[in-house]
Amino acid sequence: MPVKSFKFISPGIFINEIDNSQLPAVGAEIGPVIIGRTERGPAMRPVKVNSFSEFVEVFGNPIAGGQGGDIWRDGNYTTPTYASYAAQAYLRNSSAATVVRLLGAEETGLSGPTGKAGWQTTLDNSATPASNGGAYGLFVFESGSAGTQVDGVLAAVWYLTTGSIELSGTLRGGGAAQSAAALYADNEGEYKAVILGSGSAVSQEVSFNFTPSSSKYIRKVFNTNPTLTNSAITDTDQLETYWLGQTYEGHLANVVGTSIENTVGAVLGLDLSGSAESAADFRGGFQAAQTPWIISQDLGAYANYQAENMTKLFRFHTLDAGEDEQKKLKISIADIKAPTSPDQKYGTFSVLVRDARDNDNAPVVLERYSSVNLNPASNNYIGRKIGDQYLSWDDTERRHRVYGNYVNASKFIRVEVNESQTDASLLPFGSFGPVRMKSWTYNSANSASVPDWAWAQGGGSIPLAEGTNFIESGADGADGFTGSVYYPAIPLRASASAGDLSDPKNAYFGIDTTQNGNNRHDSSYSDVVRMLPPVIGSFATGDSTEYSYMFSLDDVSASSDTGVELGVWVSGSRLAGNSWTSSSYTAVLDNGYNRFTVPLYGGYDGLNITEKDPFNYTRALADGTDSTKYAYYSAKRAIDTVADPEVVEYNLMAMPGIYHAGLTSHMMEVCEARGDALAVIDLDSGYRTSAESTDTIANRVGSVSTAISNLNTRGVNSSYGCAYYPWVQINDSISNSLLWAPPSIVALGTFSSSQRKSELWFAPAGFTRGGLTEGSAGIGVIQTRERLTSKDRDNLYEANINPIASFPAEGIVIFGQKTLQVTPSALDRINVRRLMIYVKKEISRMAATVLFDQNVPATWNRFMSKAEPFLRSVQARLGLSDFKIILDESTTTADLVDRNVMYAKIFLKPARSIEFIALDFVISSTGAGFED
Questions:
Q1: Residue 794: what pLDDT?
Q2: What is the residue range of 216's domain?
Q3: Backbone angles phi, psi at 889, to 5 degrees
Q4: Is the pLDDT of residue 589 over 60?
Q5: Element (H or E) spanning 907, and its range?
Q6: Co-location of 893 and 930 in the same domain
Q7: What is the pLDDT of residue 340?
Q8: pLDDT at residue 463 in the model
Q9: Which strand (E) or helix (H) includes residue 732?
Q10: What is the DSSP letter of 505?
């Protein structure tokens, strides 16, 4: 402050302290970008987490692999999620990492099957329809007398790679047989399935029921692991030709009964005649789950009411999370309130993101958005409160485009609002149901036809259509059969008293995710909300599909119990004029029933479920291109999502466990183009995990020579990449499991711990900062896949591969810190490259503060006043031995000033690390002096 600014009243000494020694603020911690598989979470886009606990909350726990069980229903836990362990290792000592979860995507515009994401079973189209492989459904009907129409359901689906499946036992009309499209009577609550090979030879006979507590429960006695059909990774004695997919126990119990005793069943093929279209064809890229459209109340005459004609208001989508979120989340609309005054045009309601496994007695609310409305001008507008933005990948420009008006506030969902509706009086009152196959009725008396997707596979290879009957006894149609088939649907709450709520008005109408008769979660719910085959489509009805239900609070009325105002839902109540809303839509709200629940459904991971590791090298990545292998395309696209430095910041990049040469080279190219990140890559050393083949470990172990040879063949010369050898065994402290992990995981962990112990420009290697046994990796390291000799270490280091060595006394140590730059220079060392990345990033931030200021010496000096203290600080912390900045008329000449350019030269002398120590021990005679 200048002296003239002081106000002198009386004599004295005035002191002012001016601090010009302040260091400029350093940006927030950046950390690595880690690409790979995780248990769950947003996919194919970068998401930053600031701790390992936050990582677990968003992406789930690391998976060690080796777990079996019901893989179809519970998920693939057979192989490790290496990206999760990399995040755990790094976040142990740092507080920032960006994660890109891999799911299956495919190149835009693919014209044929090559390069398609997802999976399908082998299908022989030579028959009409195909009778060798594909999908087969078990249809179960109530038992009824001749001429009585009974209800039936699709109860289970098998997927076969070859052959077919049939029932065996006693036919409905009497007698024993084994044939396709035969109606069998149950045997004391059990059916017997016969699995046929490609030559119609019987390979298995299995008796089963639908009682979870039974030893013959359908999901206990049939194979539910799709990877066991893959001969490349399954030994011959364990190889299966099928797996059991969906089972719909809840739907079966709701329509037919809790037991299959006194029922009849038949197995029909689910493939479309004369084409490649199959219910076992799930080829397609990943997609987010969504709710059905949520619809408004009826403001017209109740006599004209049709729920499907109500206005579509909005629906919710998950944030690119594939299948997982639909299994675990559901959405409730609660506290629906009509406008209370003429000045208030819009009503309000709340949106609850709930755990799909909870019940209305004890709701588990993960997110709540209270008092939202449909008024775009309001601060409580549903789009503004929750967010409506989504990303769409542009294959031409290799980047995401952002659509929507409001940033997503939710961790799980975004909202899509029907902007064409403008009626302020409308409120959410119900929803369409998820899309399902159309119901159909079979009548042997009049040969009524059924849809294309139900066929008499096997023996006759003919559809159940005109002139064709179910086989009921020794002769077709012996005593007649009429049955209606209802494809799976989520049950709806029929009464507010269901579940024994203490206050019935706390009941959420709409879907009910509990088992019939109790408050436990219905485990078959996850199968009901699965995506339909892409050829059918999950989100819009067509010729062969329908909405599984139409629900609205308009159909809620008072219970018939005398004196009890108990809400019950019966479809058609409003049309019949006996619902509460027949007088006014507010009546149901006034009676306290102002909430309902909708599902999320139709999400898809887009992965090949017959692979333990859908991104394995041998079949998923080797020789791949964008248009020939979806796993290659997906991994490359994930790298490209983080290529733009203005989209996401990071200083390291890793894709643990993926060592495809083209993909790892692309990682280094992206890092070099950005100039602010180092790629930590894994090399193809010949090592293959058990997810690659059935070879013995002796044939899969790899070698030093293979790693060196494969790297030399590539001709890599870049200081923006580094590599390590060999794989290591780590300890998963969460599940107490041991697993073999790629070296990039422990390298990332060592980078993190090294910069925490010292600075990031110190070499992340050696016994002090690279001691893996001592915990430098941030994760427990037990042993190396190969014990390196001194010669092995020399050969690796000469090839610019950093050895992970094992010493008898010191334990396991990272014993090198070279980049993959062949040309000798300071940048062929990791500590120097990381120093330069750090310095360039921070100096760039300082330079950005003077952009668009006047190009005059005063501005130059302001930049210098920030840059010099920063570099002095780096020098004091042993990152630089010396530096010099030149920014004056000799660099920013008059010509550059005229072109609006400020040009500075920054000279740096990086501090080098000690990698070799030479010691001379001189032995002298007793009488000699040391000064000699």
A1: 95
A2: 118-285+437-486
A3: -65, -20
A4: yes
A5: strand 905-910
A6: yes
A7: 84
A8: 41
A9: strand 728-732
A10: G
Handedness of CA 131, 133, 135, 140 (dihedral sign): positive
Last residue of a domain, one of 446, 461, 486: 486
Residues 481, 496: one domain? Answer: no
Is 905 inside a domain boundary? yes
Residues 6 or more apart in contact with residue 575 via CB below 8 angstroms = 302, 303, 305, 306
d(CA 813, CA 555): 70
Is 468 contained in some domain?
yes
Residues 619 and 514 in one domain: no
Gap between the Cα atoms of 878 and 759, Å rounded: 9
Query: Cα(1)–Cα(16) distance, rounded to whole angstroms?
Result: 7
Structure token digits, residue 103: 């799911």
Q: What Å distances lie between residue 799 and 22, 710, 724, 879, 909, CA to CA?
A: 45, 11, 11, 26, 26
In this structure, are 632 and 674 located in the same domain? yes
Instruction: Verify that 316 and 346 share a domain, yes or no.
Output: yes
Q: What is the DSSP string of 44-95?
A: SS-EEESSHHHHHHHH-----S---S-HHHH---SS--HHHHHHHHHHTT-S
Instruction: Output the CA angle 723-916-745, nearest 5 degrees.
Output: 25
Identify residue 691 by its one-letter amino acid code: A
pLDDT attached to residue 915: 60
Of 194-203, 466-475, 831-840, 844-853, give the lowest mean pLDDT range: 466-475
Q: Residue 442 corresponds to which amino acid?
A: Y
For 566-609, the three-class secondary structure string (H helix, E strand, C coil) is CEEECCCHHHHCCCHHHCCCHHHHHCCCCCEEEECECCECCCCC
Beta bridge partners of 244: 158
pLDDT mean over 834-861: 92
Q: Which helix (H) or strand (E) holds 218?
A: helix 218-221
- Verify that 660 and 682 share a domain, yes or no: yes
H/E segment holding residue 202: strand 202-208
Whether residue 370 is found in the same domain as residue 511: yes
The two three-digit tokens of residue 353, written as one number: 């993101």
Average model confidence (pLDDT) across the chain: 88
Question: Considering its fold, how many domains does the chain have in total?
Answer: 4
Torsion over CA: 147, 149, 155, 157 (sign): positive
Sequence-distant (≥ 6) Cβ neighbours of residue 664 within 8 angstroms:
655, 658, 679, 681, 682, 683, 721
726 upstream amide cis, omega within 30 of 0: yes
Q: What tokens appear for 675 in the block?
A: 């100039």
Q: What is the pLDDT of residue 376?
A: 95
Backbone dihedral angles phi then psi of residue 514, each to the nearest 5 degrees: -100, 165
Torsion sign over Cα 647, 653, 658, 662: positive
The continuous run of DSSP H or E covering 751 comes out as: helix 743-757
Specify the residue for token string 């310095």: 839
Give the best-scoring range by mean pLDDT among 21-25, 295-299, 881-885.
Answer: 295-299
Look at phi and psi of residue 78 and say left if phi exceeds 0, alpha if psi is from -120 to 50, else beta: alpha
With CA atoms as reference, report the closest residue to 406 among 397, 417, 395.
Answer: 417
Distance between CA atoms of residues 576 and 591, nearest Å? 20
pLDDT at 29: 78
Alpha-carbon distances of 41 from 51, 68, 393, 410, 412, rounded to whole Å: 15, 22, 18, 13, 9
Q: Return the pLDDT at 465.
A: 42
| Domain-terminating residue out of 563, 583, 599 | 599
Whether residue 380 lies inside any domain: the answer is yes
**Residue 766 belongs to a domain:** yes
Burial of 744 (0-12, 13-18, 19+ CB in 10 A): buried
CB 35 within 8 A of CB 639: yes
Residues 770 and 774: their CA atoms lie apart, in Å, by 8
Residue 582 shares a structural domain with residue 679: no
Rounded-to-integer distance, Cα 622 and Cα 710, Å = 14
Evaluate whether 723 touches 802 at the Cβ level (below 8 Å): yes
Tally the residues of the chain. Answer: 932
